[in-house]
């Protein structure tokens, strides 16, 4: 187990390192550097530019140095928790993103939870009652869930809600509870808002999970050990839930690895559509205003988030499946 | 491979007598095609996809109007629909397609124009009506449209108008060309990357294979939309439509090649140890000849299936990027840029037909997915 954990951790660190290269490349891509945009925005606002400030900033970000040194200055800052400065918001990047990133994690976590809670029973039902009406409904629903892009689903939901209930659906909190600390009222308010984005985010994933679960369980149900369990007189529900479902769960856990990147991706788009205070809209805004340090930090953090999520799913998989824990190289 | 015997399910009436191959000697293409036809959903989807691409190719001819023709008199005009039978008050019947005209009133409170369909006014529709001269595909001069109103100045908004009084149906048809072709071009680019990288990786193996696999795993472990957004935001704003178009396809395929590379590599690995490859090697055939003459034909169908399954992802990605405003920009009409108009919920509540590109996206994606599934099943020689 320890060596497994060790190998996974090394792989994670390497991946995060590679993510940082990508994020840095995206920061460097737009023509001109950080300060040209900064000065342009200052002179557009009619401010006088203080040459000393400029010189100090140039020094701080090492803008006259080669890329390699700039990269190490940037990554060095990040290791110490300094992601640079957002010129659009005139504030350190760290102040801007943590709260929003927390909302992102909360939403995506809830979406995963809902996916599993919905997909497991339906998947088991669809496999046990193969080719029944319910099975067909699940299959059709799954295909439609897969084909509707998330942001379109969000739009349709908001449209229907507006037409039938006269309210705009969006945001995560009521305005008066925006900044208040978490208490019962705020949690209830959050849930009253969050159901819609969670529903939207969970749909596509649920559809996929149902298909995976159904296929896995169908493979297991015909195996001899299930027949043995039945012939020993186990009640049907125990014969299914106790053994084949547990085996079928393993491949399902590993799907988190590829579910998570898509989930993070779609939450960016859905958040923009539904105006949620998550990292998505901030990323879009920073990219359109070429606020590259903020954008790079968000891309980097979303990447890290995904990698950590994948690591957690690997650990869960190792925990429930001894073959992975003890096997391997 | 040679031992695969094929048992035909039923005799084929359409095979002509002299061309009928004895059992077990059918060409692979014909076997695949027959298996494919048994998959009804995929077969129907094939026709839908063909229809979509026909619309894309002949967009200028099929769309009753140009994508940018605007008419401020008809902002947000509601859908007219097409009617075929009309009954006059005196009881006489008229047959033939027509659309109703509009009655406009000024809403005294909001001071806005409100349109109602006026069933009294009928504008007959005709096929191959004359239009302003235009060039089909940019080089064939034409001056007829597939259909349109017989009176040249009558309004024609079959599924409604947008905020500038442009015909939504025409824009949808023009958008089909951009969205479908971006999917196709993007997939072709991905395929080039995928086949070269995956092919080398699978055929030679070793450290190169290991490195490529790590890169693929890395790319697949990242959320793609933020990366696409980041890359798309770096495109210079002053680029023309054509440059942006190709830049976007390149960006999409930069992250999109991994799946195809995986498929190609997997097939290469599986085939490398097959007897017929060893035989070719012992015969002294060059690597190039072995790959092109012996290996590629035997997994071509898999590649086609994987490519078909990759197109919907590309289309969805372009739609999402353009929808967010970082993909294709305004003068270009694509499903994504059309959906941008639907972002405001209040506007949408007044003009729900702005969501129509969404329906088209879903139909296209579903059809391509079914088609790809069917092709994949049909291409598998050991499947039933």
Short description:
Chain A is mostly helical and 329 residues long.
Q: How would you write the strand order of the largest sheet of chain A? A: 1-2
Taken together, the total number of domains of chain A comes to 2
Q: How is the CATH topology of the largest domain in chain B named? A: MetI-like fold
Termini gap of chain A? 12 Å
Secondary-structure content class of chain B: alpha+beta
Per CATH, the architecture of the largest domain in chain A is: Orthogonal Bundle
Broad CATH class of the largest domain in chain B: Mainly Alpha
Can you summarize the main beta sheet of chain A?
Answer: 2 strands, antiparallel
β-strand percent of chain B reads 5-15%
CATH architecture of the largest domain in chain B: Orthogonal Bundle
Helical residues, percent of chain A: over 70%
3D architecture notes:
The complex is a heterodimer of chains A (329) and B (384). By secondary structure, chain A is mostly helical. Chain A has two domains: 13-93, no CATH class; 103-325, MetI-like (MetI-like fold, Orthogonal Bundle). Chain A has helices at residues 2-28, 34-44, 51-61, 67-79, 93-128, 133-147, 150-165, 184-221, 224-231, 236-242, 244-254, 256-274, 279-288, 292-320, 322-326; strands spanning 85-86, 91-92. A two-stranded antiparallel ribbon of chain A has the order 1-2. In chain A, α5 (93-128) runs parallel beside α14, α7 (150-165) crosses α12 and α12 packs antiparallel against α14. The termini of chain A are close together. The model of chain A has no long low-confidence stretch (mean pLDDT 81). Chain B has 384 residues and is α+β, with helices and mostly antiparallel strands. Chain B folds into two domains: 45-57 and 172-379, MetI-like fold (Orthogonal Bundle), CATH 1.10.3720; 80-156, no CATH class. Chain B is 54% helix and 14% strand. Chain B contains twelve helices and four strands, in the order αααββββααααααααα. Chain B has helices at 28-38, 40-57, 59-62, 168-204, 206-220, 224-233, 241-272, 275-282, 287-324, 335-340, 345-350, 356-379, and strands spanning 83-87, 93-107, 112-136, 140-149. Chain B has a four-stranded antiparallel sheet. The longest helix of chain B has 38 residues, at 287-324. Mean pLDDT of chain B is 80; it is low at 1-22. The chains are: A mainly alpha (329), B alpha+beta (384). Chains A and B meet through α1, α6, α7, α12 and α13 of A and α6, α9, α11 and α12 of B.
